[in-house]
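Reopening this one. Same input as before:
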Amino acid sequence: MIAILKQGVTKQERDNLIKWFKNQNVDVHVSEGEYQTILGLIGDTSVFNTDFIENIDIVESVKRVSEPFKNANRKFHPDDTVINTCGLKIGGGNFQYMAGPCSVESEEQIIEVAKAVKASGANILRGGAFKPRTSPYAFQGMGKDGLDLLLLAKKETGMPIVTEIMNANHIQLFEDVDIIQVGARNMQNFELLKELGRIRKPILLKRGLANTMQELLMSAEYILAGGNEEVILCERGIRTFETYTRNTLDLAAVPKLKELSHLPVIVDPSHATGYRNLVKPMAMAAVACGSDGLMIEVHNDPAHALCDGAQSLTPDAFTDVVNACENIRKVL
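Same output, byte for byte:
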């Protein structure tokens, strides 16, 4: 349920109403927009009579929210959420490129790639230190050593970093990471999501390869319900019967998620397609459909990459993608 307050309501009047709601055993999420204040009521709201609440002097209108996701719902928060990390904004018309290798392999590799993608227009460095792999025999990442190398690349270039967490017990290791990524395989690792809800750091939440948009938003709800309001959604393709691409990039999800939710939505065309020749057209399409950013895999030697070389771009190819996407953004 949401209660929309009238214009001109004083802070004291608002706080008194919030206190009254909380005394009825519901949590209250406050969203202050440019023109109106919305109180989102979370909990068992069946006890409330909407006519009674609408008759409260400072209340303009009351609406029941049928969707199970509350905090992530645009009805609760009409204005776009803007995530700010190291002075870089994502969402609300702010667009960012996140680029780097699938896996951190060495100091030389990550530094070289970081400098290259920054020169091409990326502002955020991505790289995997802990890698979930289908095969237990595949390269699993460098772990803490990989995190240390990412932080070294940040020091060298000034770029904030985004990297994936796989275990709630590792949160302390991510203290200096700027954006923590929850990968597709962990989208419904609810115990991990609960722990990430207790920290105050941007979380990039990838859609699971077999999950619906509602399930993605419900996973975001776990983080938001814990008090962490800095969540970025990522569409990275879903598994269908198609075999010519690694996954099927669901670009319709971008405008639909932005219709349903106030959270920023970015797109990962690398994992979605699995082939580097498909990254550019899908990146351009992602920009055209209204995404708030792109996450693209870039490697200085894709042929010898330890992870996902087939979908990784060279630095020169990444430059070409950025130029093409910037042309699309100018048109928009």
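So the earlier flakiness isn't reproducible anymore. For the record, The longest helix spans residues 315-331.
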